[in-house]
Amino acid sequence: MACSYNFQEDDLVEPLAYHEIQRDLKVNKQKVRETLKTSTAWLHKYQETEISESQVQLTEKQSDCILCDSCYSSCPVLEVNPNFIGPFALTRAYRYTADPREGDIQAVIDNIQSNGIWDCTLCGNCTEVCPQGIDPKMDITMLRGTASQFGYTDPNFQAMDFGFSGGF
Q: What structural domains does the chain harbor?
């Protein structure tokens, strides 16, 4: 934060939210790093393929993530669901599902269903605070589209009762 913001005298600096405080501003990031394992955001089944410049540009920004946890700390979902894997893990997942060298996109999509893409409110806090200019909100939206191609739908929407009894 200090590299992109000039602090004013009255600014309040606090530890990152949703992290165990170790001392002063130092927080334990281990739990958050575990979400990367949960999301399985890496190449699962590498397939040799040529990548165009436009394909590289599609995911280049996501690779700029410095794991600062600003997006995670700003996410309101963690207030109600501490098991939510968070925006940066989902941005990493998007980076690999959009990579044409990934031969098993469904493996990543399967692992971000529970406490993942459908739990996000798409409020945009994560995008607003990212010092790298990454747009996790858009990445999550894209992941939802990919998930729907594999037959997944929002379980929260499915569970809603709109007062219809199933007929006309």
A: 47-149 (1.10.1060.10)
| Partners of 21 in the β-ladder | 27
User: Which 8-state DSSP code applies to residue 27?
Assistant: E
30 sits in the region (left: phi over 0; alpha: psi -120 to 50; else beta) called alpha
Question: Model confidence over 54-71: pLDDT tens digits?
Answer: 777 777 888 888 888 999
Whether residue 64 contacts residue 115, with contact meaning beta carbons closer than 8 Å, is answered with: no
Residue type for 127, please?
A: T
Each residue's pLDDT tens digit, 103-140: 788 988 998 998 889 999 999 999 999 999 999 999 99
Q: Which whole-number Å values give the CA distances from 86 to 17, 77, 162, in the listed order?
A: 12, 8, 29
Tokens 């989902």 locate to 90
